[in-house]
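Intended use. Records such as the Nickel transporter permease entry shown here are meant for training and evaluating sequence-to-structure methods. They are not intended to support clinical decisions.
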Amino acid sequence: MSEETTVVERMRTTAGDTRSRLVEAYHSRTARQFRSNTLNLIGLAIVLGLVLTAVFAPYIAPHDPEEQHLRDRLEGPSAEHPLGTDQLGQDVLSRLVFGARVSLKIGLAVVGISLAIGTAVGVTAGYAGGYVDEGLMRLVDVLLAFPGLLLALVIAGILGPSLTNIMIALAIVGWTSYARVVRGSVLSVKEQEYVKSSQLMGTGRLRIVGRHILPNVMGPVVVLATLDMATVILSTAGLSFLGLGAQPPTPEWGTMISTGREYLQSAPWVVNFPGLAIMLAVLGFNLLGDGLRDVLDPREEESVQNKGL
């Protein structure tokens, strides 16, 4: 091995060690910054509690969520039914617990589909530019011209009432936000020196996108996905309340409010507890998303990149 080759290898090793130390320092600073805000920890605790409730629902729920006992209908909170029963004698607590499963499943599915489509469109538009960018962004503008929930309502109404159709409707509406965010980030990242250097060295487009573009646009996407979970949960409950989502006896929070609203004065727990569950879930994801937005500030990432990443 020549002396020149040895020097090059040493430089690469040194650069790799420096990069690793900078990444470790950035992650450590990010974690400390996140923990320093009490609201961030509250949001994280609520989301973790929601996830654990959904995962261990069969062990937490005291009764079968779809089991009916008409003799016990509209009973108030008691030792046997901590949150009371609904108009069919079903245990409200058990239905709330299993409802967390339904809400998270729909939220993760919609956010996952929207993120995949939006990221693909945003990266393609931002990196290709020209007529490709213009055409894709005009499509996004057309969809964004309609109120999101109204468009989802129309699509769900055409497809028919079911949880699957709600997921399709919300995904069709939701991907546009990811496309615009990703495109904006790609336009900024592709002008960085390390990307231009890779292009001059003849690196393929797919490799540049996979190695340099995508990792550096994920910060804003993660924040948007977390906040979008709150929007999807709330939209799902709203569409189910209107009869376009889950149908009885499926334990879904919006459906529980819809079927119990006639008993709001005589048995308020039938409506109040599902409403409280929706509020806590939306609050948790919003607080967590705000915290992630603070610590995943693109300016912080850029300062690290300028030092060698």
